[in-house]
Fold these 2 entries.
Entry 1:
Amino acid sequence: MPVHPFEPVYHKHSRILILGTFPSEKSREENFYYGHPKNRFWRVISCLTGHPLPEIIEEKKELLALEGIALWDVLKSCDIEKSSDSTITNPVPNDLSIIFDNCHIEAVFTNGKKAGELYRKYCYPSTKMKSYTLPSTSPANGRYNFEKLMWEWSVILKYLR
């Protein structure tokens, strides 16, 4: 059973928390969130916030810090085939209190339906904070082109500005 390979990213001034499900194979290889070159997460965040597209991990962390975004995944470990959320079994949630105890989180957003379902089932009972499910930025989500993703994800801006 794979275990989440990297730490959450947050700062004392983080105002929103964005949660995925579990790192993809490519993200685990790259050793950071949304490492697949076709995942649109970093492009969406940089376009929405007006920052240049971050290329390296340090630039990604800097962008998150500048905008008050905490980033992690719902699951600490699970059984998963390749990178397919639909194959997740034996989920073990992360303890989100590390973020909630150190930041003033005003809103929780989940990246995709599966992350939303897992958050509601395993994390909401302890956080008591409703989450907003946003369409997945994964390349597997062909129903949403980039412009439609930008429109849906723009809801985060009211917490960042």
Note: Residues 113-127 form the longest helix (15 residues).
Entry 2:
Amino acid sequence: MTGDAGLVGPEPLRALMARVADAPEALVAFGIPRCPACMLLPASLAAVSAARPGLAVGIALLERPEDWALREELLWPRGIRVSRSSVPVLAVLRSGDAVATRMGGAPAHMIDRWLEPHLGRAARPVTEGPTPAEAGVLEAIAGRRAQQTVVKARDPLG
């Protein structure tokens, strides 16, 4: 789903999977709230969507226990594995089934390169470097990214 700002916005997991179930090809992403890499996905996937017209693109945030429970019904049968420690997760779907998955986010140009072996070259390949939208998100979440870096660097036994 493309938002007003040209970003690909999160949608409920059930709605996303229903929307892409019959798409010839789709790129779906799964994340959690407050995850810096997940926060970058809307801007990155918007650029990928613009580069690949006709590709169904979407994001679902797994926020509540009910969302996590839906994995068994909506994701696992399609070959998509998502856990709290693996988010974000990207999946390329062909007629609703995963043909490739990737743990971790990336800038749009890297996601586009990852898609090439599975979907061919983009109609309008994404140029290297952050897009203006990605740069804006990175600036907006700089504090959150710094906080996460400090927390991850702590010695839990020290």
Note: The chain has one domain: 13-153.
